[in-house]
Amino acid sequence: MAFQALIVFTLACLCVPCYGNRKFIEIDTFSNDVQKGNGKPVFQEQWITQKLDHFNGADSRVWNQKFLVTETHYRAGGPVFLMIGGEGPINAGWMAMNPGSAWLTYAKKLGALCLMVEHRFYGDSRPTVDLSTENLRFLSSQQALADLAHFRTVIAKQRGLTNSKWVAFGGSYPGALAAWFRLKYTHLIHAAVASSAPLHATVNFSEYLEVVWRALAAENPECPLLVKKAFDTLQERIKDPNNYDNITKDFNLCSKLQIQSEKDRAYILDALADNIMNTVQYNNDNREFEHVLDTNCTIKTVCGVMSDASLGDPYYRFAAFVRLRTITHLLKPCVKDLTYNANLQDLRNTSYSGPHGGGGRQWTYQTCTEFGYFQTTDSPNQPFGGFGLQYHVEQCQDIFNISAKTLYAGIDQTNENYGSYNIRSTRIVFPNGSIDPWHALGITSSISDDLPAIFIKVTLIQEQPTVPTCTLPELRISPS
């Protein structure tokens, strides 16, 4: 398959979403036909044995990794498409035709076998009995790439696909893994599509919120200014304990606001800003097939609410949007306990069934040891404030006892290992979009003919004359 043909796949890789006693089976035994169509399985759930530590020959411990496979579109001699899982469980929705399944559309066209592999320590792929910091030392991108290499080798041998052309797909962190898989295991992977891939590790990812500002401004130039006014007011009011009752009511907090430390203050500001940050990041990303509840909360919704003067000044408009998204996204009537210590205790929980056992604790560990990616308010060119770099760095110490020195050394090692923006390989496509904040850490200009970047500049157009709202089935929620 000519490499140039891969360019048409660039819309295929939206991010694989972030998140038992099981009977493990041999990989050549087909079972658990999860979904059927036309009398044949659409995909099957299978397991493969992996080493706990690929880089220590004296360590013989193994575990079982989950993957999904569909032969629905496969034709003899066709390529193999490998979708890489990331910081959460793999979602079976990606194995069935839906608006987000462009990779299956191209699989049908080219006769590809499609595989999706879950990342170690996420979902049902659990190499250790718990998520203790001692066990999480086996969680790294390098170990994950070695898992992929072993997976590719074993499956190719089992299915007679050793000489087939394997193409790696991924979005966001898995997009970076796809690029690095091609970089590090050139003999195993023919090409890669690295969508929205943050290839540059950085402790202070202040550019994230700069993109949020520009994305809001693309919808309405006044929108980020209104958000900034709202947040400035919130920061001022939150300094005075006499305002805590009103803030609790304005944002519909489940319990009265309590701020015992500067970390409490930073945490609640971060948590409230996250409502807009997440809305921008996942704007119109076709995730309905994953049953994500707030996909209809978009940048248009944010700016519509922030422009609605009937709701009061910008502070009250922002509060209205937070209330709206809380109900739509969480299906809860109020915002949960917003204290740093409560969140800290949740993140320290080492059980897979704990509050952050689905991926939050694991991903936080990876950011503290490999990537950083901390979305700080340190830049003046963004709408928020109050959660700077030090707040994020200290979380690594508080949760995992990882010092700032260790954190910075880990990020330097990641860039040294993979090349950061200066990645040198062949046959990797780097699709990015201007609205997505993660493009700031990716490749947006072609490095060479064999390392093309496709940067999609999006201009948002106001289509609705009235204030848009997020909705749920059989329920319409006004922003007031």
UniProtKB/TrEMBL annotation:
GO terms for molecular function: dipeptidyl-peptidase activity; serine-type exopeptidase activity. Keywords: Glycoprotein, Hydrolase, Protease, Signal. This is Serine protease 59, putative. Residues 1-20 form the signal peptide. It comes from Oncorhynchus kisutch. Belongs to the peptidase S28 family. PANTHER family: PROTEASE S28 PRO-X CARBOXYPEPTIDASE-RELATED (PTHR11010), SERINE PROTEASE 16 (PTHR11010:SF117). Pfam families: Peptidase_S28. GO terms for biological process: proteolysis. InterPro entries: AB_hydrolase_fold, Peptidase_S28, Ser_carbopepase_S28_SKS.
